[in-house]
Amino acid sequence: MKTQFEVGIIGGGIIGQSIAYQLAKEGVSVLILESNKIGNGATSAAAGMLGANSELENNDAFFQFAKESQQHYHVLRDELSQISQINIQFVDKGMYKLAMTDAEASALKDVVKYHESVEWHSKEVVLESEPTLSATIKGALYIPEDGHVSPYHVCAAFSKSARLLGATILENTPVHEIKKTVTNEYTLSTPVTDFVCKNIVIANGVWSGHFFKKLGLDAGINPVKGECLSIKSNDIGLEKTIFYDHCYIVPKGDGRFVIGATMVEDDWSTVPTIGGIQSLIEKVTPIIPSISSAQLIDTWAGLRPQTIDGKPYIGQHPEGENIYFATGHYRNGILLAPKTGLMIRDLILNRKQNEDYVKAFSVNRLQVQTMR
């Protein structure tokens, strides 16, 4: 078994796989160590929304990063399909962000003034397009760029493509310790064997906090449990994703609709609760009344990694070590995976970076702001 690599990635979810794919494309020898199964954590629990406009409201570096990542899915759709023969199920029919009150309608109309890529659609226009929705809506913000993908298929496509390009991916191989060698490389201790890597990327979601502590960094990651359900109904016909009050309804094209997600902070359980699922049903029933007769297919929950300010950590160890972080993506892991992979690749290969992104996602950004 090969034990020496240029880059070792801890975590085999969609973030780690995206990074491995981009590095493998450049001929870099890459190792992914996943403690469970590939994409079995937060990736498997996500609905796959690419909500750059619906989720993010400030026109800052985070928003621009998200928009670029969203757009890169247009490249990946064909690129990953050619290499892996896996369809990532990219759907770009847009999204409706609903207004249920006059105040919400007024706020969404204001958004149009500052974002050229969105439109306000009246109640009549919305219902003509999506007649399943309740007649009590006030209208909606139409966001043509916010589509969705299948997280499972994206992660699988990244993984298979990375393997075909030479990456080594090991499942059920947790990393217990990172040690620096006398030659300024890093030893990753696992139950299988020790691996030696020149560069390390920590990309294991909520469990990244373990390595932050080990490395003496004060950058916490907290779990936010997200519960979801899927339904099937012949009475519901949606083309666009529907978004309201941090709740989404995503049509999957096979008669299924994914509804999510709750936000339960500091809960490490991945078992959905009756209360959580009930709260989702109560939230979407006024939007789509016919949902009450739908068939319940499945329920599940995942742990989203949240940082103190809600933005991910994407960058190099603040002391210049060859240790990189790609974690804390919270509700936007699927959306941000493409651009995260590109940014970490360029950091490792010492390519020019967008300094606004480097500052926005640095591990010690909060300490720097405090000092100012």
Automatic annotation (TrEMBL):
GO cellular component: cytoplasm
Matches recorded under InterPro entries: FAD-dep_OxRdtase, FAD/NAD-bd_sf, Gly_oxidase_ThiO
Annotated catalysed reactions: glycine + O2 + H2O = glyoxylate + H2O2 + NH4(+)
Residues in FAD dependent oxidoreductase domain copies: 7-346
Keyword annotations of the record: Oxidoreductase, Thiamine biosynthesis
EC number: 1.4.3.19
Molecular function, one GO term: flavin adenine dinucleotide binding
Pathway(s) served: Cofactor biosynthesis; thiamine diphosphate biosynthesis
GO biological process, alphabetically ordered: thiamine biosynthetic process; thiamine diphosphate biosynthetic process
Stated name of the protein: glycine oxidase
